[in-house]
Design brief:
The chain has two domains: about 80 residues, Rossmann fold (3-Layer(aba) Sandwich), CATH 3.40.50.20; about 100 residues, 3 Solenoid (UDP N-Acetylglucosamine Acyltransferase, domain 1), CATH 2.160.10.10. About 10% of the residues lie in helices and about 25% in strands. Strands 4-7-10-13-16-19-21-22 form an eight-stranded mixed β-sheet, covered by helices on one side. A hairpin with a 4-residue loop joins strand 21 and strand 22. The longest helix has 13 residues. It starts with a strand and ends with a strand.
Length: about 200
């Protein structure tokens, strides 16, 4: 029996997640979005069934919002209303044995999670991202396409690793830290800081 879900966020990422969910054996029956016109002009998607404050929460929800600040706020609001959240691992993703994914994780096609990694709740691992062996990552991790986190790295909560960025093995990123697109982090990054460049420099 196919498991019905709703998708939080009807933007581009939410629409991608619709297709990943179907490939993963889930059946998305609607979107939750504060913009009721979010799907105008797009065919073949189920409707927006309401905003975060009033949409039904009788089915599990997949989180299709990428921006961490908005994602945290929406998830917290829905949880306060009694919502539960599903996870989605695309069949073309690889999650090796011994690794743990938290509640609400989304793992896109061709993402790779190596052995004995621990990734917290509501992680979003985009296509082609790599989480190395023995990595420890907190909740609301966002890794964009082609991002890499090397073995034994430690990432706090609400960390963002943008497109093509690399966290070298064993390095640390504190809560709410950001690594810019195409950057390489070769030293630890404190909480709340952003780094860019090759090697990445704090700013």
């Amino acid at each position: 029996m196919t498991r019905e879900v709703r998708i939080l966020g009807a933007g581009g990422l939410g629409r991608e997640l619709f297709h990943w969910a179907r490939a993963s054996g889930l059946s998305p029956v609607g979107f939750i979005d504060d913009n009721p016109a979010a799907l105008n002009g797009f065919d073949a998607y189920p409707p927006v069934c309401g905003g975060v404050a009033e949409a039904p929460v009788d089915l599990p929800i997949l989180c299709g919002i990428g921006q961490n600040t908005i994602r945290v706020r929406c998830v917290d609001s829905l949880k306060a209303r009694g919502a539960t959240f599903a996870s989605c691992v695309h069949p073309r993703a690889v999650v090796l044995p011994g690794s743990v994914l938290g509640e609400g994780a989304v793992v896109a096609p061709f993402a790779y999670v190596a052995c004995n990694a621990t990734v917290g709740a509501f992680a979003f691992l985009q296509a082609g991202s790599v989480v190395g062996h023995d990595v420890r990552a907190g909740d609301f991790l966002r890794m964009d396409t082609g991002a890499f986190v090397g073995g034994f790295a430690v990432l706090g909560d609400r960390v963002t690793v943008y497109t093509g960025a690399k966290v070298m093995p064993g390095k640390r990123m504190g809560d709410d830290s950001v690594l810019g697109a195409g950057s390489a982090l070769m030293s630890n990054l404190p909480a709340g800081r952003t780094a860019f460049g090759l090697p990445a420099v704090r700013c």
